[in-house]
Amino acid sequence: MRTPLKKAATAMALAAAAFTAQFVSAAPASAHPGADGYCGYREVCVYRLANYIDMWADFFNADNDFSDDNLWFWDGVTYVRGSEMADNRASSVQNFDTGCSAILWQLKEAGGINQVVYPSAALPNLANQGFDNKASSLSWSC
After folding, report:
1. Confidence band, pLDDT 50/70/90 cuts, at residue 2
2. Helix, strand counts (H, E) of the chain
3. In this structure, are residues 134 and 111 in contact, taking their beta carbons and an 8 Å threshold?
4. Do 82 and 71 contact (CB within 8 A), yes or no?
5. Considering Cα of 76, then 79, then 81, then 84, what sign does the dihedral take?
6. How far apart are CA 120 and CA 100, in angstroms?
7. Which domains does the chain have, with CATH numbers?
8. 31 or 136, which is more confident?
9. Which of 16, 59, 62, 96 maximizes the CB count within 10 A of its CB?
10. How large is the average pLDDT for residues 50-60?
11. Which of helix, strand or coil describes residue 54?
């Protein structure tokens, strides 16, 4: 039989585990390590120009700083990591995740104004939302 003391200890242990899990699961990605130049399922892709053309960056996890994320391009044979960075370069975006919204932020560390891209949605011209070349970080909402 459980005693009130055991219940309190169990509740405290669960609260501590939940608190720790928040920090572990919320850890930001660094230079989007899963990036392969291919925009696929459960990723969001930002494109340098409107209408999803030119160079792009693919993100699976949250990323608190686009300044260390390279844009990719197709060289006719394979996907190639370019030298241009994604920070303040997005003019269009596609969210390939069917259950989570991608949130682009104006500043690093999810700061400033933001642009929500709903699940399976695409915005062909971020200038229409007043967010052209402003994205500097990414978070997700599920």
Report:
1. very low
2. 1, 9
3. no
4. yes
5. positive
6. 9
7. 28-141 (2.60.20.10)
8. 136
9. 59
10. 96
11. strand
Of 66, 53, 59, the residue nearest 39 (C-alpha): 59
The predicted model scores a pTM of 0.77
Residue of 16 and 81 predicted with greater confidence = 81
> For residues 98 and 108, what is the distance between their CA atoms, to the nearest angstrom?
25
> Tell me, what's the pLDDT at 137?
98
Q: How far apart are CA 87 and CA 104, in angstroms?
A: 11
Site of tokens 């003391």: 5
Percent of the residues in the chain that have a pLDDT greater than 90, as a whole number: 73
